[in-house]
Amino acid sequence: MVEKLSADARATLLRELDGWEEVDGRDAIIRKLKFKDFNEAFGFMTRVAIQAEKADHHPEWFNVYNRVEVTLTTHDCNGLSERDEKLAKFIDRIAG
Amino acid sequence: MVEKLSADARATLLRELDGWEEVDGRDAIIRKLKFKDFNEAFGFMTRVAIQAEKADHHPEWFNVYNRVEVTLTTHDCNGLSERDEKLAKFIDRIAG
Description:
The structure is a homodimer.
Chain A: H1 7-16, E1 21-22, E2 29-34, H2 38-55, E3 60-64, E4 67-72, H3 82-95
């Protein structure tokens, strides 16, 4: 069973992360990233995909050309969990 | 300069393609695909990404776990062009 982050842990997380916002009407967070071009955007997505598969926790994401929008939430607890925290921090590290 | 498909060419294309629909309110087409799992879905996306980059014509797409939604349109002509036709047919070939 995956547990939702506590209100405190969630608030701390949002302060620690880089450029993530809460999603309106859903218990989820989103980060909108812009890259130099498609090659760089899809390269980023590939790194996230490999990490996501390894952690068995996958993003919801949209891409067009050099833009990527990543939404994170944990379906098993219907909100944010430690799994989202780990993936969001990985994304922040590689997004630079 | 990229030219929009004629009304005839567009109608023919939509008959030829596999599972594509017109997008409400936009001159674009969408195909919603479902795969066995994330590995298979992202593998498909990677094949499309390489082809898109080669043709310098990129999709707008959304993915969550085993689902991929691909939208095609040509910004340069504000509608469907031969570029979308080629990429849509490539997608149909590899989607099986």
